Amino acid sequence: MRYSMQYLKTANVNLIKDMGMIPYKLYERYGYHSTVVTYKNGEYPYIENEVKGLKIDFVKRRLKNFSIDGALYLKSNAKNIDVLHIFHVTMSSVIYAYTYKYYNPKGKIYLKLDCSHKLVERILKLNRITYDLLNKFLNKIDLISVEQQSIFLNLKELLPNQQHKMINLPNGIDYDYLNSINIKYDYSLKENIILNVARIGAEEKNTKMLLEAFASIDEEIREDWKLILIGPIEEEFKSYIDNFFYENPELEEKVIFKGNIEQRKELYEYYLKAKIFSLTSDFESFGIAFVEAAALGDIIIATDVGIAKEIVIKDNGRLVPPKDKEALKGALEEYIKREDFKELSKFTYELCKDRFDWNKLIDYLYENISSIAK
Fold it and tell me: How many CA atoms lie within 13 A of 354 on its CB side?
């Protein structure tokens, strides 16, 4: 099977996310001839080890326009692609779909809707004409996957003519890779760490909420705990950090900014050591960091965004409304004092292993691709 994932913004880091992992795992497990189609966006060292065997085909920047350059690539290559994998409902994806089907009418298109509730809201606001145009585009698609269960159900209801081709497929974690770098869940390695992995200070990540909630926790409760934040720090946020430590000098050794960590093993070691993972975003389409944290037994205490609600399903964490600092403070205090951390951690780890293993997800996707490719 000749399988091409076309997303022209793909960079090296995307090769270990869904853009690279789906074609890679289809190659690894089922022998697909998998190719990533993209502009050349820097270097791609992950291709040598993490996703070895995955091919990359670079699109020429003729007009420096994602839609047109991508369409010109498909004009020349569509007949050599059995399954075209595209993303999102955008002008580019519409043009790719029509171009591909024109030059390869028998080819199949897999559309991955990396979306949030905002797509549902946009569809609800469409007038009759734009709703019909959306359906005409989706009629070109042979398989549609939606990451979150709740959005999947909403879209099936909003798009009844397309529901027969929709599947629920979240993003996953590559346990094969974790084993290869000797990262294995072990509760005895856990420390009193609250971990945050995000673009520090980005508006939608609302890092301030987490910092202020941690600072407001009773000193005796947080005495033995540290807050570690990993990720690139937005330049304009650095003055806020300076002011935060000026107002809370006692936290200089308890709140630690590690900056961006590019070595994957080092990052996973922090997930392995943390007891709590907290992401305080106002908005997330999926939030792969939730899955990475859960895969190593971190208790999720976060805003109710992205895939979090499918991980926190019992008492193994707490979700709070976005921007609700007091609710976050209360949840952190509650769980810091919990005595059943080990049981909650193990439950989270096992749930993630069952639901978010890339191998299991790819097996399911393969079954569905096989059904449309007959």
Answer: 8
